[in-house]
Amino acid sequence: MTLTTREGFIDVLDVVKGVGEYSKCRERSAEVQAFGIRFRVLDLRALIDAKRAAGRPKDIDQLPELEALRALSSPGR
What's the first-to-final CA gap in the chain, in angstroms? Predict the structure, then answer.
């Protein structure tokens, strides 16, 4: 389900393809703060897995940039 808000669209899913159900998504997430609100988002590796599993052209197109960000943030770099 996609909700439309004043801030933009929010996808509400019971399972994230490539990551799993809520408990797995929570394990593979990080807490962030924006606009004075704290919330959790998929970590970069989980986001890449989700986009790869979705397989939509717009997701596949984003993979090179996400992979580059992951490489830049890898320890020992």
Answer: 39
Q: pLDDT tens across 41-70, in order?
A: 999 999 999 999 999 999 999 999 999 999
How far apart CA 52 and CA 71 sit, in angstroms, is 17
pTM higher than 0.85: no
Those residues with Cβ within 8 angstroms of residue 43's Cβ, 6 or more apart along the chain or in another chain: 28, 29, 30
Q: Which residue has the tokens 């962030």?
A: 32
Cβ-based neighbour number of residue 25 at 10 Å:
19
CA distance linking residue 22 with residue 62, whole number of Å = 24
In whole angstroms, what separates CA 4 from the centre of its chain? 19
* Long-range contacts of the stretch 70-76 (C-beta < 8 A, 24+): 70/44, 70/45, 73/44
